[in-house]
Amino acid sequence: MQNAFRSIGLIARATSIMGNRLFTPKNLQANQFLYLLRILENPGITQADLATQLHVDPSTCLRAVRKLSAGGYLTREADPTNQRRKRLVPTAKAQADAAQLHGYEQALLTVGTQDFTPGERLMLQELLARVAANIEGLNDDPDRLMATVKRAPHEN
Amino acid sequence: MQNAFRSIGLIARATSIMGNRLFTPKNLQANQFLYLLRILENPGITQADLATQLHVDPSTCLRAVRKLSAGGYLTREADPTNQRRKRLVPTAKAQADAAQLHGYEQALLTVGTQDFTPGERLMLQELLARVAANIEGLNDDPDRLMATVKRAPHEN
DNA sequence: ACTTTTTAATTGCAATTGCAATAACTAATT
DNA sequence: AATTAGTTATTGCAATTGCAATTAAAAAGT
């Protein structure tokens, strides 16, 4: 049996490529659909919070959001209480695509777990959510992973 | 509960960043350690096969391998039976780092599943391996995913 | 034997990414 | 109130990525 993280990497690369190919006709490359889904579910979210949710660099988030804005999928409204914060609000165009975006996510799950029992499907989602939480915990203490790597380093 | 593929994307991005940071002191950026692990486990593997295993573009694979070669981690030996095939063979330097690379993979698993029972850990690995197989199956029939996306397209 | 098709590795290109540093604004401290 | 520290968004930069097209070699078909 393979280390679970190898499978995770494979699946992530494969689905990213498929998603980008599927949505390029709508000018939604580069995982922009991931950002759009989150904004649709959290209207008014800020870039910083979105970057945290998606585990991408704030600058990466900025550029994806900028492209979505240029494409007419969202507007960036300054928060009256805090001039720096830009609230990301989906447009009607984004709302029109929401169903297809969720349909894509659901299709991935359907095909990816096509031979699963409902119980297995639920189990997978639960276990992965826990792994994600554990990995996010490393953000607050990155050295913990290093400490867990026990073998000798063989420095150059 | 989140769609499993969201968790997969999050985990993949987070671990990729951590891995790159951990191995930059050894000049192993850009997921090169993933390639090196596979080559260590499959000495003599060709670039095409490696690209298939890792689900990356052959050109991406070429450039990662080229950097590993430049860094002294492997040699590229022409296959006598087929002039085109270049067999990738790990060097002693690569062997010396093998333990640390496996240690990193193991550490990821340890931390990522720190609150799991052994049974849950095994279950996760099995379910993910099956998902990976299902997703790879899409390579042979990419339209199947599109067909599964049922919602209306709302073309531009 | 000759042509066509497939395979393996490669290159140019445009686009995305993360990191480091910066700007602008807000909060906290003295 | 003034200075310091922290937050939010941003930009320059170097590096990686996937796609499309190219080269070279092998296999298949005629």
From TrEMBL, chains A, B:
<feature type="domain" description="HTH marR-type">
    <location>
        <begin position="1"/>
        <end position="133"/>
    </location>
</feature>
<keyword id="KW-0238">DNA-binding</keyword>
<dbReference type="InterPro" id="IPR036390">
    <property type="entry name" value="WH_DNA-bd_sf"/>
</dbReference>
<dbReference type="GO" id="GO:0003700">
    <property type="term" value="F:DNA-binding transcription factor activity"/>
</dbReference>
<protein>
    <submittedName>
        <fullName>Transcriptional regulator</fullName>
    </submittedName>
</protein>
<keyword id="KW-0805">Transcription regulation</keyword>
<dbReference type="GO" id="GO:0003677">
    <property type="term" value="F:DNA binding"/>
</dbReference>
<keyword id="KW-0804">Transcription</keyword>
<dbReference type="Pfam" id="PF01047">
    <property type="entry name" value="MarR"/>
</dbReference>
<dbReference type="InterPro" id="IPR036388">
    <property type="entry name" value="WH-like_DNA-bd_sf"/>
</dbReference>
<dbReference type="InterPro" id="IPR000835">
    <property type="entry name" value="HTH_MarR-typ"/>
</dbReference>
